[in-house]
């Protein structure tokens, strides 16, 4: 009777309505307790008993409890499950099967079963698997966490664990696509010019196999240059209905990892038939463009052709030769082109500094591995003149592509970058005002005014200001329609120079060919495709970062044991401490607040401002150069821990 009593139901509702609640995301710790982080920045303590009902990443509504001066929350309603598909390690104990998610904030051993199609005997303790969470204690009729093992990723002793686990975590393909047995050319209605006699050349890393761009450069009598860019043409072999195209569309990009590449196209195409190998005639899509003496772009022409690379050059040799180092010298028909390309590069850089934007690039850190995947060394590759020569050539070519597609088609695959996320514009404006930079919100959304602002910020040479401003800035996304690229300071940007490794470039190749053949271009790319390309690029970058983090921990373990000191820069500050990047090798390490002072209460962290005070004195801020000692390398979380050097 009480259950049907309307007065009792009303009373319960009143109690619920007046009970304070909070909604947010659960953040777990390795000490059993957790926190509820709300969207407005509040943080509530979740005691260990309550944490047994939730897992890191869950979004919940929780009841707020006040006990004296202590506030805590008890999760009441699951809004969104934080863990679904995940990578884990198998735990077998006395005939009981469980999985431990591979996540730094999750230590739960979750009871599990094995998918029927898998052989249970093939999965042993410590093996890496992919699982799904199929039961959650906060769901109706579920009393505990329970998972199903769907896939064996790698045996515990497999030397390829860092690569296989990382690719599985991000649901990326483990192997290159299968190759077809025959690859006939598809040339209907397309005429190709024979430019095989022109001495094109390639510049790449010594290990590169998928060479997709070759150059030819001559000086004009008026002081400018004429540059021809020949780009590999996989769409000559792969039409839109081919299985290889459908697979490339899913993969979207070649995944480049230390010691392993997972190609977008079959290796037979990527590394052989399409690669612009020295001395081999290849179908190409080409563009001849004029660069004026002041670095501005002049006329250009796109066309289909057959071309041949006459020289395979490397960044190191070309840079050494231009800088007067080493014994290597280019052939007589290549040397004048390299000199001309160097001068073109300096002119283009100067023009972009004045009329667009040029960002100082950071060096690349190249992992040298043995056949078993062990790191032998990490080499620093600076952006020397040869790297800049190729970079400027590709930016100029892609700017021409954006203009060509905009004028002749109206759509394509464009890289669009807004300087600031629309929802963060007002916050960015307010922050800049605190730095005596007074701008209207329109200034942050208008490309010409933003370029002026960016130059003013750069002129201050304030590393803290530059890093702090990134909190408000947006990311590059793929768009079917042209739009500004604030990062480059260009009104539109569309890449076509890497079709072996980027599906969007293949799409742009096809559109250019439609124009060359006088055909009506197909409808613009769907939003689903542009979102797919954007998301896959994000996943690829995360995979590269994750594999590097794993290898860094293995490589730097002896340094952590020896507490080696490194020069570093502060790249992030949060409530728990600061994250630094080691200058020598590019690794990132975390410096916990207790490492800054033995009395944690004397460390005051302002994570919003990116500043840290120790004993009431500002000691650290974003962008600062610091010196740290590595003190721990944790392979289970792929993380490095450091403390400030004495």
Blueprint of the fold:
Elements: H1 6-18, E1 21-28, E2 34-38, E3 43-46, H2 48-51, E4 59-67, E5 70-80, E6 85-93, E7 96-101, E8 110-114, E9 128-135, E10 146-154, H3 161-169, E11 193-194, E12 200-204, E13 213-219, E14 225-232, H4 243-251, E15 255-257, E16 260-262, H5 267-273, E17 281-291, E18 297-314, H6 315-322, H7 335-355, E19 364-369, E20 375-381, H8 385-408, E21 414-416, H9 425-434, H10 441-445, H11 447-459, H12 463-469, E22 477-479, H13 503-516, H14 527-562, E23 565-574, E24 577-582, E25 588-592, E26 603-606, E27 611-614, E28 617-621, E29 625-634, E30 639-644
- Approximate strand percentage: 25-35%
* Main sheet overview: 6 strands, mixed
Overall average residue pLDDT: 93
How many β-strand runs? 30
How far is it from the N-terminal to the C-terminal residue, by CA?
A: 72 Å
- Report the helical percentage: 25-40%
Label the overall shape. Answer: globular
| Class of secondary structure makeup | alpha+beta
Report low-confidence residues grouped into runs of 5 or more: none
Instruction: State Rg.
Output: 28 Å
The number of helices is 14
Number of structurally distinct domains? 5
Task: List its salient traits.
646 residues, OB fold (Dihydrolipoamide Acetyltransferase, E2P), 5 domains
Explained architecture:
- With 646 residues, the chain is α+β, with helices and mostly antiparallel strands.
- It has 5 domains: 22-80, Beta Barrel (OB fold (Dihydrolipoamide Acetyltransferase, E2P)); 85-158, Beta Barrel (OB fold (Dihydrolipoamide Acetyltransferase, E2P)); 193-350 and 369-402 and 498-518, no CATH class; 422-474, no CATH class; 563-644, OB fold (Dihydrolipoamide Acetyltransferase, E2P) (Beta Barrel), CATH 2.40.50.140.
- Helices cover 28% and strands 31% of the residues.
- The strands form 8 sheets. Strands 11, 12, 13, 14, 17 and 18 form a 6-stranded mixed sheet that branches. A 5-stranded antiparallel sheet has the order 3-2-1-4-5. The protein has a 5-stranded mixed β-barrel with strand order 6-7-8-10-9.
- Strand 17 (281-291) and strand 18 form a beta hairpin.
- Helix 3 (161-169) packs antiparallel against helix 14 (527-562) and helix 7 (335-355) crosses helix 8.
- The mean pLDDT is 93.
């Amino acid at each position: 009777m009480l259950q049907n009593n309307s007065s009792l139901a009303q009373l319960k509702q009143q109690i619920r309505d007046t009970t304070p609640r909070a909604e947010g995301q659960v953040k777990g710790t390795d000490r059993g307790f957790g926190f509820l982080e709300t969207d407005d920045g509040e943080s509530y303590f979740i005691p260990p008993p309550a944490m047994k009902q939730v897992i890191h990443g869950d979004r919940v509504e929780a009841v707020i409890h006040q006990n004296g001066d202590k506030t805590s929350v008890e999760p009441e309603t699951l809004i969104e499950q934080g863990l679904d598909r995940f990578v884990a390690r198998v735990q077998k104990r006395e005939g009981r099967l469980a999985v431990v998610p591979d996540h730094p904030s999750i230590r739960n051993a979750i009871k599990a079963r094995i998918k029927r199609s898998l052989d249970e005997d093939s999965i042993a303790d410590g093996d890496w698997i992919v699982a799904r969470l199929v039961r959650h204690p906060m769901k109706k009729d579920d009393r505990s966490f329970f998972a199903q093992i769907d896939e064996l990723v790698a045996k515990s002793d497999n030397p390829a664990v860092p690569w296989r686990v990382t690719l599985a975590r991000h649901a990326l393909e483990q192997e290159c696509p299968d190759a077809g047995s025959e690859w006939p050319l598809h040339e209907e209605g397309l005429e190709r010019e024979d430019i095989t006699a022109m001495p094109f050349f390639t510049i790449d890393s010594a290990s590169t196999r998928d060479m997709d761009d070759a150059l030819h450069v001559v000086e004009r009598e008026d002081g400018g240059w004429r540059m021809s860019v020949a780009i590999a043409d996989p769409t000559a072999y792969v039409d839109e209905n081919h299985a290889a195209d459908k697979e490339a569309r899913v993969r979207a990009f070649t995944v480049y990892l230390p010691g392993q590449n997972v190609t977008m196209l079959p290796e037979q195409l990527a590394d052989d038939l399409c690669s612009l190998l020295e001395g081999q005639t290849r179908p190409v899509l080409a563009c001849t463009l004029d660069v004026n003496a002041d670095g501005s772009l002049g006329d250009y022409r796109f066309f289909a052709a057959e071309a041949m690379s006459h020289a395979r050059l490397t960044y190191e040799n070309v840079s050494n030769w231009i800088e007067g180092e080493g014994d290597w010298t280019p052939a007589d028909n290549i040397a004048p082109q390299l000199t001309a390309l160097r001068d073109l590069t300096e002119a283009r850089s100067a023009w972009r500094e004045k009329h667009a934007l040029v960002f100082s690039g950071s060096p690349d850190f190249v992992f040298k591995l043995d056949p078993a995947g062990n790191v032998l060394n990490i080499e620093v590759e600076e952006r020397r003149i040869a790297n800049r020569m190729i970079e400027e050539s590709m930016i100029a070519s892609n700017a021409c592509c954006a203009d060509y597609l905009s004028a002749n088609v109206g759509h394509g695959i464009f890289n669009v970058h807004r300087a600031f996320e629309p929802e963060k514009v007002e916050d960015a404006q307010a922050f800049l005002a605190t730095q005596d930079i007074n701008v209207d919100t329109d200034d942050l959304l208008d490309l010409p005014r933003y370029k002026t602002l960016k130059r003013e910020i750069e002129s201050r040479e304030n590393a803290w200001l530059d890093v702090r401003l990134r909190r408000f800035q947006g990311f590059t996304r793929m768009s079917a329609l042209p739009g500004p690229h604030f990062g480059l300071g260009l009104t539109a940007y569309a890449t076509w120079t890497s079709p072996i490794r980027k599906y969007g470039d293949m799409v742009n190749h096809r559109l250019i060919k439609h124009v060359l053949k006088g055909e009506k271009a197909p409808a613009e790319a769907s939003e689903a495709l542009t979102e797919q390309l954007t998301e896959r690029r994000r996943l690829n970058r995360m995979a590269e970062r994750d594999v590097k983090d794993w290898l860094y921990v293995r490589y730097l373990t002896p340094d952590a044991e020896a507490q080696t000191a490194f020069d570093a820069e502060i790249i992030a500050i949060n409530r728990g401490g600061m994250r630094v990047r080691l200058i020598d090798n590019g690794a990132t390490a975390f410096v916990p607040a207790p490492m800054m002072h033995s009395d944690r209460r004397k460390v005051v962290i302002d994570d919003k401002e990116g500043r840290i005070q120790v004993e009431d004195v500002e000691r650290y801020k974003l962008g600062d150069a610091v010196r740290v000692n590595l003190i721990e390398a944790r392979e289970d979380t792929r993380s490095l821990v450091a403390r400030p050097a004495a």
